[in-house]
Design a protein that fits this description.
This protein has helices spanning about 5-20, 30-40, 50-75, 80-105, 110-135, 145-160, 165-200, 205-220, 225-230, and strands at about 135, 225. It is mainly alpha-helical. Strands 1-2 form a two-stranded antiparallel sheet.
């Protein structure tokens, strides 16, 4: 699907920001930020260290679940693996939504129901991070933007530099055409996640869930890596 990476980047930004705002600084889409916040909280400048610690095994569980399902179900043909992972992520996001509604308003982040809520969000985004490793398709990383922003800046400089060959500039423009929309959609998703949460609380998670179901219904690209042995499109962080 032409806009698959952009949609996934918007989901990642949306869910990550919603979790950060709702759960006192929890990152659901990637674990690096949680390690930084854990360090800050150990130094007594934050809160919710237990939830952030538990987000790591939940994230790992989401990745492991995706891998086990892809290997044991032995899905044949293009798209089926991608559709399965979209549906699994949607189910986990639905659990994140209902768990969040049940604990709202969140006052104490170190209670078991709130920790479970955060773990469901981390598991859902673990599935999305695993997607590019388990389903081969042309695209760019869509959950962590550091590499995309770095590449976009390098390509922009190459395009503007007079000493770069015409062939290199064409390649840079092609890469920039893929990475820049993903970065912009991640940023737009992050803004939307914060704004919609302020109006609808955890019910705001129904929006990315609907997008995932749309992707599951209409995706046309991708094939299981176990079948094609292709190189993954990007790293998981």
């Amino acid at each position: 699907m032409k806009y698959e990476d952009s949609a996934l980047a918007a989901i990642a930004g949306y869910v990550d920001t919603l979790g950060f705002v709702a759960l006192f600084g929890l990152f659901t889409a990637h674990v690096t930020g949680n390690f930084v916040l854990i360090g800050a909280e150990v130094a007594n400048v934050g809160q919710g260290v237990l939830m952030k610690l538990m987000a790591f095994p939940a994230f790992v569980a989401g990745v492991a679940l995706s891998s086990v399902l892809m290997k044991t179900l032995r899905l044949g043909g293009p798209c089926r693996g991608a559709r399965l992972l979209y549906c699994v992520q949607a189910v986990l996001l639905l659990g994140f939504c209902f768990a969040g509604v049940s604990v709202s308003p969140v006052v104490n982040v170190d209670t078991a129901p709130v920790i479970i809520c955060g773990m469901l969000g981390a598991a859902a985004m673990g599935v999305q991070n695993a997607h590019s490793r388990l389903v081969s398709r042309q695209g760019v990383p869509n959950t962590v933007m550091t590499g995309n922003v770095t590449q976009a800046v390098i390509d922009a400089v190459d395009i503007a530099s007079p000493g770069v060959t015409a062939e290199a500039k064409v390649a840079a423009r092609l890469r920039l055409g893929k990475t820049l929309p993903t970065v912009l959609c991640f940023g737009a998703g992050a803004i939307a996640g914060a704004v919609v949460y302020t109006h609808f609380s955890f019910w705001a998670l129904l929006l990315p869930l609907a997008v995932l179901l749309w992707l599951a219904a209409f995706t046309r690209g991708g094939q299981a890596v176990s079948e094609t042995h292709a190189t993954p499109s990007g790293p998981v962080k």
